[in-house]
Write a structure and sequence with these properties.
5-stranded antiparallel β-sheet; alpha+beta; 42% helix; 214 residues; 8 helices
Length: 214
């Protein structure tokens, strides 16, 4: 069953993504799902593989929710803030994933923990959000250099009349972008979608087998 899950998930990727991904995702999935079936406590198994799970998409924290049961890995917002975020995500249009490196622009309440989670990759998006995975990235300050101030300025002339001053095209104006993370690459997004789906399927399948055996 383990091999079947991995093959199905990898087959969902296009050929170019599979080539760029190499064996990394397959190896990570194989180790995770094998240990999920070998051990009784899937939460403990995921904690043991936390670094590999986070490294796969270069995230600093993640939250996995399966049938309402929740597990946090790495650095994530407070539990109450996570519940609020899940509530907001559940109101969004169903989709394979929701990705942003500027969470505050879509979810203003995220400003409370922007240092920890300015970037969000959530998959899948569905009403209730009972089976999904959230990945977080911290704030990464960026300084943008503009050739001249990007807005026209109004200044008084010698007679006191207001005139639009010309831009100083050779002057450099600096702007610092806050509450943004590094951008998510298409490969990282594909990896997150495949990994979260495989984990949810594996844990759900194991629980079903345990219930049937009782």
């Amino acid at each position: 069953f383990v091999g079947k899950i991995i093959s199905m998930k990898l087959a969902a990727l296009d050929a170019q993504s599979q080539l760029r991904m190499g064996n990394h995702l397959g190896q990570t999935l194989n180790a995770l799902i094998r240990d999920i079936y070998a051990q009784d406590d899937f939460a403990q198994t995921l904690q043991q593989h936390a670094l590999a799970i986070l490294d796969l998409v270069r995230a600093s924290g993640a939250v996995l929710r399966i049938n309402g049961q929740q597990l946090c890995l790495g650095q994530v917002p407070e539990p109450a803030r996570i519940e609020e975020l899940f509530g907001w995500l559940g109101q969004q249009a169903p989709a394979e994933s929701l990705v942003t490196e500027h969470l505050v622009s879509r979810y203003p309440a995220g400003a409370e923990y922007a240092e920890l989670a300015s970037g969000l990759l959530a998959t899948p998006i569905a009403p209730g959000m009972k089976n999904c995975m959230l990945w977080f990235r911290p704030e990464r300050l960026r300084t943008i250099n503009w050739a001249g101030y990007p807005e026209k300025r109004v200044e008084p002339d010698a007679l006191g009349d207001l005139r639009i001053s010309p831009r100083k095209s050779f002057a450099v104006w600096h702007e610092t972008w806050r509450q943004r993370s590094d951008e998510w690459t298409s490969l990282q997004i594909d990896s997150a979608v495949v990994l979260s789906s495989a984990l949810i399927d594996a844990v759900d399948h194991k629980k079903a087998k345990q219930t049937a055996a009782r």
